[in-house]
């Protein structure tokens, strides 16, 4: 491990939800936390470093084509999901990245089991896929608004008392299957304070260029703040696993949230440690034959092979 890699691994430790621990968001995580990074300027430098690292690893991930990375982003409204995606993924090759936003399920989606639509959007080998909202909505918004569960037309046996316990278990097992088969899952919860959400909503009202982002529905949803905090606390407690741990990203400062999210994703890639494929001696020999043929075609005065060292 290089010193840069060690620094990143140490930095993200504070955000990790220890599998098996019982979390209460308000007690255990501070949305305004900024650890030892004191200035935005220092933050920007770190973010740039993280972005370089991500780009470097993504190239190798793509070349190796064995692992994929699924980034799961969950948050309350105005926590900065879109901005985080935009900033963190700036350096990567768009060909290897996909973003999918999950909205209220369509009637076609409701014809299927609750995990169906998420499975359809998973990243393939070599790819980074981002879920902007995810299967966790099924144990968050659906839990906070029981009428959404009604629309899922579940058989009576699947609607009973143990439904959330069962869903946590099913989600954990689904993620275990994916991770065993090469899809690494990175789960980020952008943790915003109620007061910071209030000021961000006001900003969207006050600044004309931001009006388009304002939604009265978001303000109505704010009335369920404490229900969401409880639901998130349960999700974090029950679905942070060794194979797919949750990271709680302090989101009151946008610049800090971006560094933290970038670091967690970079760390996941470091853990995969993808390598450029190497070739065996037969393939090497074949390459050399082609090289000789190409060198023989050099026009008069041109170097036979301008890339050859020396
Ligand atoms: P933005 O507002 O920045 O565009 P967003 O993610 O808030 O992003 P919206 O279209 O405003 O997008 O909201 C999507 C809505 O869909 C959210 O309120 C979310 O809770 C809801 N939703 C997502 N998944 C489900 C689901 N499985 N069941 C019910 N509602 C869901
Ligand atoms: Mg919204």
UniProtKB/TrEMBL annotation:
Keyword check for Transferase: yes
Domain of life: Bacteria
Pfam families on file: PPK2
Keywords on record: Kinase, Transferase
Keyword Transferase: yes
GO biological process: polyphosphate metabolic process
Record domain Polyphosphate kinase-2-related: where: 39-269
GO molecular function, one term: polyphosphate kinase activity
Cross-referenced Gene3D superfamilies: P-loop containing nucleotide triphosphate hydrolases (3.40.50.300)
Protein name from the UniProt record: Polyphosphate kinase 2 family protein
């Amino acid at each position: 491990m290089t010193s840069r890699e060690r620094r990143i691994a140490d930095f993200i430790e504070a955000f990790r939800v220890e599998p098996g621990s019982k979390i209460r968001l308000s007690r255990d995580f501070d949305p305004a936390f900024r650890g030892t990074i004191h200035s935005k300027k220092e933050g920007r430098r770190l973010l740039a470093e993280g972005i370089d690292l991500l780009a470097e690893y993504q190239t190798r991930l793509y070349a190796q084509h064995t692992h994929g990375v699924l980034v799961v982003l969950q948050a309350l409204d105005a926590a900065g999901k879109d901005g985080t995606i935009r900033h963190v993924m700036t350096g990567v090759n768009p060909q290897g990245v996909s973003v999918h936003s999950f909205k209220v399920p369509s009637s076609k989606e409701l014809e299927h089991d609750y995990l169906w639509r998420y499975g359809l959007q998973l990243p393939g080998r070599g790819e980074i896929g981002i879920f902007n909202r995810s299967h966790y909505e099924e144990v968050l918004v659906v839990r906070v608004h029981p009428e959404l569960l009604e629309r899922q037309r579940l058989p009576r046996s699947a609607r009973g008392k143990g439904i959330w316990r069962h869903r946590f278990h099913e989600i954990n097992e689904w993620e275990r299957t994916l991770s065993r088969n090469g899809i690494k899952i990175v789960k980020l919860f952008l943790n915003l304070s109620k007061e910071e959400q209030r000021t961000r909503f006001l900003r969207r009202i006050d600044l004309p260029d931001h009006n388009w982002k304002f939604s009265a529905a978001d303000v109505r949803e704010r009335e369920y703040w404490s229900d969401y905090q409880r639901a998130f606390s349960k999700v974090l407690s029950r679905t942070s696993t060794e194979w797919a741990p949750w990271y709680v990203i302090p989101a009151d400062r946008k610049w800090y949230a971006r560094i933290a999210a970038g670091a967690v994703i970079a760390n996941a890639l470091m853990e995969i440690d993808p390598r450029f494929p190497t070739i065996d001696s037969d393939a090497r020999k074949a390459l050399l034959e082609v090289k000789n043929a190409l060198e023989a075609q050099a026009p008069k005065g041109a170097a036979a092979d301008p890339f050859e060292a020396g």
